[in-house]
Design a protein that fits this description.
The protein has 476 residues and is an alpha/beta fold. It has three domains: 55 residues; 94 residues, no CATH class; 196 residues, Rossmann fold, CATH 3.40.50.300. It is 43% helix and 13% strand. An eight-stranded mixed β-sheet has the order 6-5-7-4-8-9-10-11, sandwiched between helices. It has a three-stranded antiparallel β-sheet with strand order 1-3-2, covered by helices on one side. It is elongated. The C terminus is likely disordered.
């Protein structure tokens, strides 16, 4: 790095002129001060300004990993162009309809600021262009080129912003910048949509307040209201029904269990979510369909957990096993005549490495498996998002939502499911073990989000045997 230099002048402007003439426009001012020099031999003293400046010199690797000014300007212009086009789109077309207007790469406004060096090279090239004449190639070379097959036409590559491609050294920096761009874009779109909703009808504002009151995030609420035709709604209830249908279409597809070839079904999730009760409900329902189901309990360290599972098996007559190691689960899967094994795993939030390593060891035993995340509907949105994110590492096939009858706020649940692209396989709305789990229904979930209650329609549950025909075992 260059050593700092001192410049003295009568005024600050003259000192800055000296810095520019000596060090150039890239100089950095370190300090400025006013000083007084006494006169010699009776001469009067003088006041002057002293400026300390230097030219910074960055290492090559730092410049290579950091985004240039042109890249930052191009990224900023891209985000602003997309946001303005999105905000200019009609409200019924959706908040992201403006992407189609700026999708062609040629339409993206990329600033072009050529430096003096580039301008000089361009003028030199234009002067030399008329003098350069292509010489005719020899006949042998021309014949050889004619015999060679034509090269395949290369695929079109966007050339509007080639300098924005991330390098190997700056992946972390580019990832952070892209996250900032995404957050900025979402904020701009949400603000524009909120302004339109505030200026819209009373029904539009009423439905938005209802969605926010029921736990939905402001971004998702604005997105839904931006995608419906608010002008076609005559009152708030009509608009709410339109939002329900749009939310049902936006939710991930329902996770199907019937018809899939799996030998094991794992129920994972936090403690107290109702995994054991759900395992018994599913086993009873599948047993009524003629399947031979075994419940394998791997929660053997929690106090009272093995006894609870054994008691459920004695009361219901289900085949219940306790698995202390993955080898025991593998032996059950290899037994002839067993159609499905429902694995009841220990409750955890997915943040402990030892618990996740234990779960992974059991998952590796069953290759044909189905992993369902069991989550209570009463969990708040932030905790629910952390649990879904933690268990996504093991590969989730669907979600089981329990305790739907204990809350009236389901907006956070819909927001997390959409963000994680996780479909609902089953829901439970009662605490009765004998009641069959309700298959997932996106329209019913959307109605619960908007109207703060589940639809009263219930599926037909096969009749259970009378109490006199059931044998209750006494567990000691």
């Amino acid at each position: 790095m260059q050593q700092p230099k001192r410049f003295q002048a009568p005024t600050m402007a003259e000192a800055y002129d000296q810095v520019r003439r000596d060090l150039g426009d890239a100089a950095v001012i370190l300090s400025t001060r006013k000083a007084f020099a006494p006169g010699l031999f009776g001469q009067p003293g003088r006041e002057f300004v002293e400026v300390v400046a230097r030219v910074p010199q960055e290492a090559p690797d730092v410049r290579a990993s950091r985004a240039t000014l042109e890249q930052d300007e191009a990224a900023h212009d891209l985000v602003r162009a997309v946001a303005e086009a999105t905000a200019a789109a009609p409200l019924a077309a959706g908040p992201f309809a403006g992407f189609q207007a700026v999708a062609p790469v040629d339409d993206v406004p990329v600033p072009v600021r050529p430096s003096r060096k580039r301008a000089t090279e361009k003028r030199v090239t234009e002067k030399r262009a008329p003098q350069e004449v292509e010489k005719p190639a020899p006949k042998r070379a021309a014949a050889k080129r004619a015999e060679q097959p034509a090269a395949p036409t290369p695929l079109p590559v966007p050339t509007a912003m080639p300098s924005m491609l991330p390098s190997a050294e700056g992946n972390e920096t580019w990832s952070r910048q892209l996250d900032q761009m995404r957050v900025l874009l979402e904020q701009l779109v949400s603000e524009r949509l909120d302004q339109r909703i505030e200026g819209g009808s009373t029904a539009l504002r009423g439905v938005r307040e209802r969605l926010l009151r029921h736990g939905m995030t402001p971004a998702l609420a604005a997105n839904l209201l931006g995608e419906v035709d608010a002008g076609a709604a005559t009152d708030e209830e009509t608009l709410a029904a339109m939002v329900e249908r749009r939310l049902a279409a936006k939710l991930p597809p329902v996770a199907s269990v019937v018809g899939r070839r799996q030998r094991a079904m794992f129920l994972v999730g936090p403690g107290g979510a109702g995994k054991t009760t759900m395992a018994v409900r599913m086993a009873l329902d599948l047993q009524r369909q003629g399947l031979n189901v075994v419940i394998a309990g791997t929660d053997v360290n929690r106090a009272g957990a093995p006894q609870q599972l054994v008691a459920f098996g004695a009361v219901t007559g289900l085949d219940v096993r306790l698995c202390y190691a993955p080898d025991e689960l593998e032996a059950i899967l290899q037994e002839p005549g067993v159609d499905l094994v429902i694995v009841d795993t220990p409750g955890q939030n997915g943040l402990r490495r030892d618990r996740m390593a234990e779960l992974t060891s059991f998952l590796h035993v069953a290759r044909q498996r189905l992993v369902l995340l069991t989550i209570p509907a009463t969990t708040k949105g932030s905790d629910l998002a952390e649990v879904v994110s933690a268990f996504s590492a093991v590969g989730l096939d669907g979600a089981v939502v329990t305790r739907c009858d204990e809350t009236a706020h389901f907006g956070h649940l819909a927001s997390v499911l959409i963000e994680a692209a996780l479909g609902v396989a089953f829901t439970t709305r009662s605490d009765q073990v004998g009641d069959a789990p309700v298959p997932g229904d996106n329209l019913a979930l959307a109605e619960a989000v908007v109207r703060a209650q589940w639809s009263p329609a219930q599926p037909v549950v096969p009749a259970r045997r009378p109490a006199a025909e059931r044998t209750l075992a006494k567990v000691g």
